[in-house]
Amino acid sequence: MTRATDLARELAVRGFHIVSGGALGIDGAAHRGALAGGGTTTVVLGNGLDIAYPARHASLFRDVVARGGGLAGLAPDGVPPRRAMFPQRNPLIAALADAVIVVEADVRSGSLSTANAGRRFGRLVAAYPGSRGCDRLLATGAALVEGAGDVELALAGSPRRPARPALDATAEQVRAAIAAGARGVDQIVRATGLTVRAVLRALPMLERFS
Q1: How many domains does the chain have?
Q2: What pLDDT does 165 receive?
Q3: Do 95 and 142 fall within a single domain?
Q4: pTM above threshold 0.85
Q5: H/E/C letters for each residue in the chain?
Q6: What is the pLDDT of residues 83-129, one digit of tens each?
Q7: What phi-psi label fits residue 22: left (phi over 0), alpha (psi between -120 and 50 degrees) or beta?
């Protein structure tokens, strides 16, 4: 959460408006970081705007509005939070943003659905390395972000990209066999003397390297 707070604060200092989902954890950290940086932020809720959810964030939401930010959502007043509403609000977060930045995520995180919506809308998608979901985004073309300067570079059209991983000795053998004309796992095994399991483990690495 410290990463989210620090990044949001740095961006707010530079004049960026922060949009996030208001949930406990990283969302709340992003909103607090924006306020700490003297900036404004929008909370996108998965329920009616007259209901503070999570309840622990009621005072945070009041601070957001008092400091010139706002609350947004798809549900009419009076609609309580429901599990199905939260994935539905993720595209709204992406639509309101110029860039979708994922600071930390597992492979089933709702943040990845927000990133996917951002790609559909043509938004810049960026990720902070170090978690499985973020590393997957980086492997599929997301810009690398570790500070506000990286966000500015990416928005200006010069995104940082992660360094391609070095191939280990097994993957090098498999690549050499393929370059020499081996096709299919059985041919690669015969050409290299490696086990089937070793070849199968090396092939995804070659795909990422290509």
Answers
A1: 2
A2: 63
A3: yes
A4: no
A5: CHHHHHHHHHHHHCCCCEEECCCCCHHHHHHHHHHHCCCCEEEEECCCCCCCCCHHHHHHHHHHHHCCCEEEECCCCCCCCCCCHHHHHHHHHHHHCCEEEECCCCCCCHHHHHHHHHHHCCCEEEECCCCHHHHHHHHCCCEECCCHHHHHHHHCCCCECCCCCCCCHHHHHHHHHHHCCCCHHHHHHHHHCCCHHHHHHHHHHHHHHC
A6: 888 889 999 999 999 999 999 998 888 899 999 999 999 999 999 99
A7: left
**Same domain, yes or no: 93 and 127:** yes
Q: Tell me: do 178 and 75 sit in the same domain.
A: no
Enclosing domain of residue 139 = 2-155
With tokens 């096709």, the residue in question is: 183
For residue 16, tell me if it sits in a domain.
yes
Left, alpha or beta for 193 (phi > 0: left; psi -120 to 50: alpha)? left
Q: What is the CA radius of gyration of the chain?
A: 21
Over residues 6-33, the mean pLDDT reads 97
Contacts of 56 (CB under 8 A, 6+ apart): 24
3-class SS string, 1-56: CHHHHHHHHHHHHCCCCEEECCCCCHHHHHHHHHHHCCCCEEEEECCCCCCCCCHH
